[in-house]
Design goal:
7 strands; alpha/beta
Amino acid sequence: MANAPQPHGNATTPIDGFPTRVLKRIMLILFGPLYFLFIAFVPLICAKRTGFRGWYWRLVKRACSRLLWLLSIRAEMSEANKQDLAQDSNSVIVINHRSHLDGFVLMDVVPDSKWFTFAAKKELCDAALLKTGFKGAGLVEIDRKSGKVAKATLSAAVHSMPERRSVVLFPEGTRTKSESLGEFKAGAVLVARETGRMIRPIVIHDSDQLLPRGRFVPKSGTIRVEALPPFKCDPEATVDEDVTRLRNTMMAVFDKG
């Protein structure tokens, strides 16, 4: 078994002084709800505009970046990784899941030129205050009551996407409770095989140090993100073998810290 990863030395070091952090939290409390409602209801007004989805996606990305700024959280990714992702195409993105911050962090660090969206459980897309924004951003709705139906829905959605657009999947299925990566589900590998796409693994470090399970208000600090080289499924291997190889590839980077 791999050694448990050690938290990065700078992960929980506040990036702002205490007075600045307090001021930002006050701004978030006062203006955050209004901004959220604006983001959620823009699709009701502008959804029929030409190029709306691309424009709206960038708006949502900016909102995620502003939220992290107000929380005094910095997301870091190397320039080399950003350049790789800017040119990424014909991929399915998989990331490990440590915290509720993970999606916001990914939206912040990935370049605008890389268009991606998330697969989300249908219950979230049905929520009254979320469904207009989620549908406007092009989220893929997944009904998890049936694994077979979910995979078919996801594969069909990926087939219909242009090559420059990718769907983001959490192969662990939910936030993992272990110190290393949790067990991977086969969904990403199955979809990649069926659509002929490669897998782009992305590893998130330390997000659970800032917002662990049971904590509502995140700490200030730094979350690091690493984009790994493309992972190609092996047509000569079984699905389980590809899943294990993918997990081992990502775990080696995560456990290294």
